[in-house]
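Bug #2210: token dump truncated for Cystathionine gamma-synthase family protein?
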Amino acid sequence: MTDENDLSGAPAKRAPKPSPTSIGNHQLSAQTLMMGFGFDPSLSEGSLKPPIFLTSTFVFESAAHGKRFFEGITGKRPGGAEGLVYSRFNGPNQEILEGRLRLWEEAEEALTFSSGMSAIATLLLTYCKPGDVIVHSGPLYAATETLIAKILGKFGVSWFDFPSGATREEIDAVVAKAKEKGRVALIYLESPANPTNALVDVEAVAAARDAAFSGGDKPPIAIDNTFLGPLWARPLAQGADISVYSLTKYAGGHSDLVAGGLVGSKKWLDPIRMMRNTIGTICDPNTAWMLLRSLETLELRMTRAGENAVKVCEYLRGHDKVESVGYLGFLEPGSRQADIYNRHCSGAGSTFSLYLKGGEREAFAFLDALTIAHLAVSLGGTETLASAPAAMTHLSVPDERKQALGITDNLVRISIGVENADDLIADFENALNAV
Ligand SMILES: *Cc1c(COP(=O)(O)O)cnc(C)c1O
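Reproduced locally. Full output below:
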């Protein structure tokens, strides 16, 4: 009897030939692999760069192939899709992108999404059901807080939070309270927090989780790594299970696209892939192609932006119209935050908080006098951006919570780009003169 799924006689799936990741004993770095990993020019007429695959669907070699691919897509057979099926599930540009994105954190898998928020929403929908509890660090990106509290709240999911800088004891206490309330589905972190820049001790969270749960009850730890990843922080190495990205920011890096990503082990990402297949939150091929181009210069861009930020922050900190600069490079030696930084981070990033002497009037005068830096929300682009959180991104946050988080009227949020550092300092000097 013949097995209808035996494809040994059928033409093999035209998989890209494997890309080398080492030369002899020498391991190649992610920075090098961004140029060509996972793309086989012989599948695309010898094109050096991947074409953009603008197609809604893919032709099967045979009906048996079609069936087998669908078994993979639907999870009827483990191992995932063996071939391309339909563009809501996957496509060549997204597959190449995911193959490269995971390399930065040396993860098994990556998934890409139409935005950072659609990545987070797909993650939460996968792991939460009515009655469940989410434990999270606070504050979170405003839309993430809305999603957890207001939207999932409608479906009977509740939450408990601990402050970003919490100690092991504080985390233990919140986890214990959450366990009393219901099944803990997920531990969700964001580090550094926006706009406080407070770092979360991922190792302490992982230890707290491992002490409080065993076996199949262990909730995954997901962490929004948008601000420092993937160059300056790789939280999977500190015990997180899923690293979350708004690829709109540093990864995309040119303020010209919106996308999201999740990076982690196959065990945690496979169920999310099934959810993405169902609800269609995958990144589109054109955006995936742009991200491939962005990743080629990720290390260059982030390194330059980080070097610029050091110089700009040194300048700003010494200015007499400046109250303080909330920058990860200026943590007090010996403090708990400095200890977390030393264990978790390899760089201070290029997004920081500038507190001017005065209030809204001074902050607005400064922003309105900028020449090179643009007055816009968002971060991680090649160009420097500045905004006033109290009046813009965090306008709807209640006053007392604003106060607790240090979101005062004199706060300016700055994301440094890759311009010449002396030009940026001249721009800030000029704007401070106008205050
Ligand atoms: C921008 C951002 C998001 C949301 O990403 P989008 O791509 O805008 O959907 C989530 N988390 C953080 C930390 C962000 O900065």
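Output looks complete on our side. Residues 115-117, 141, 190, 194, 224, 226-227, 246, 248-249, 258, 260 surround pyridoxal-5'-phosphate (CB under 6 Å). Marking as cannot-reproduce; reopen if the truncation happens again.
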